Amino acid sequence: MRDSLRDTIVTRLSEYERVVEVGIGRQSAVASGLADNGVDVVAVDVYDVPVPEGVVFVRDDVVARADATARGDDASLGPYNGVEAVYALNLPVELHRPTARVARRAGADFLFTTLGYDEPSIPVRRESLAEDTLFVATDEPGSRRG
Predict the structure, then answer these.
(1) CA 54 – CA 76 distance, rounded (Å)
(2) CB 78 within 8 A of CB 20
(3) Region for 57 from its dihedrals, namely left if φ exceeds 0, alpha if ψ lies in -120 to 50, beta otherwise
(4) Cα torsion at 14, 85, 49, 98 (round to 10°)?
(5) For residue 125, what is the DSSP state?
(6) Whose CB among 12, 103, 135, 146 lies 3.0–4.6 Å from 124's, allowing a Cys bridge?
């Protein structure tokens, strides 16, 4: 990720006090930048990965979490409990809906970028960034949020 895009995303997400990054993988620059700005960051991934100082890592499967939260058990929110935003970078299309369900259940905003030219599989509002588009899940008619 280019520094200018990272900085733009960090600036945009720094308005939140507590966030979760879904699928952090090996790209931790945004999480690190947010933590440096005083944002409480939890990073989740299905694999154990190292995260920068100031970022908490939780091994979690957002698809399994979405299934658990669909049963209405707030205790099943795990690391998403009490967050203001859930974000993901280069999120595969098959994870758009499950991640949106978890964010909705947590009462959090859901913001993400996609892989390449994938279109979002959920209703979104688009925000133009320096070199990419940030998608923000909406509560518009037909949306699963709300």
Answers:
(1) 24
(2) no
(3) beta
(4) -150
(5) E
(6) 135
List all residues 6 or more positions away from 82 whose beta carbon is below 8 Å from its beta carbon: 18, 106
What is the DSSP annotation of 2-50? -HHHHHHHHHHHTT-SEEEEE--TT--HHHHHHHHTT-EEEEEESS---
| DSSP code at position 77 | G
d(CA 119, CA 84): 24
User: Would you say 20 and 80 are in contact if contact means Cβ atoms under 8 Å apart?
Assistant: yes
CB 146 within 8 A of CB 139: yes
pLDDT in tens, the chain (146 residues): 577 888 999 999 999 999 999 999 999 999 999 999 999 999 999 999 999 999 999 999 999 999 987 777 666 799 999 999 999 999 999 999 999 999 999 999 999 999 888 999 999 999 998 788 999 999 754 333 44
Q: Which residue has the tokens 């669909």?
A: 70
As given in the structure block, the two tokens for residue 11 are 């600036």
The SS3 assignment for 51 reads coil
